[in-house]
Amino acid sequence: MKIAILAANGKAGEAILKEALNQGYEVTAIVRNKEYKNDKVKVIYKDILSLEKADLAGFDAVITAFAAWTPQTLPLHTTTLVHLADLLSGTNTRLLVVGGAGSLYVDDALTTMLVDTPEFPDEYKPVASAMKAGLIELRKRNDVKWTYLSPAAEFEPDAPKTGEYIIAEEKFTLNSKGESKISYADYAIAMVNELKNAKFIGKRFSVLEK
């Protein structure tokens, strides 16, 4: 399977790239930073919004690990997803998204998201709200084979790889210890396994540590 990983030079993108190579996928990294070097994969140097249909032709899946953090760039969480969905519209190429936990629901009726609860930390609300907006736009698309993978509330870049995780769906879930956390390494396994298993096309799911 041929896959492209956008923002492969970020922490999440790097973890997914490493796991995809470990599982035998043919990987292309798409990055904006021309200082990025990786002799294990083909590299395309392009901004996401500059990508054209031809750039993504021939891939079985495109994974975007794009993230933005400043007030000026937060809307890119939506505009990049819309752009990628437009490029892949009507094709068999899957679009998999590294999402956020803030858009997970806290009630059985799936009406209230974590980001909209009083307990949600104020400092994370702008990013969580921007990622929520991107998911809302993605849900409008039935012309793209999209999958949105939310991590646990604590998304830990340096936590050890265990090779195990719990799959949850739309609802914010705690493990038996009352925790919601996942390492980048285990999240990457879940993402690459979804490439293989294709259980959540047109859906969002989430993962957390056992």
TrEMBL record:
<dbReference type="GO" id="GO:0016646">
    <property type="term" value="F:oxidoreductase activity, acting on the CH-NH group of donors, NAD or NADP as acceptor"/>
</dbReference>
<protein>
    <submittedName>
        <fullName>Putative NADH-flavin reductase</fullName>
    </submittedName>
</protein>
<dbReference type="Pfam" id="PF13460">
    <property type="entry name" value="NAD_binding_10"/>
</dbReference>
<feature type="domain" description="NAD(P)-binding">
    <location>
        <begin position="8"/>
        <end position="196"/>
    </location>
</feature>
<dbReference type="InterPro" id="IPR016040">
    <property type="entry name" value="NAD(P)-bd_dom"/>
</dbReference>
<dbReference type="InterPro" id="IPR051606">
    <property type="entry name" value="Polyketide_Oxido-like"/>
</dbReference>
<dbReference type="InterPro" id="IPR036291">
    <property type="entry name" value="NAD(P)-bd_dom_sf"/>
</dbReference>
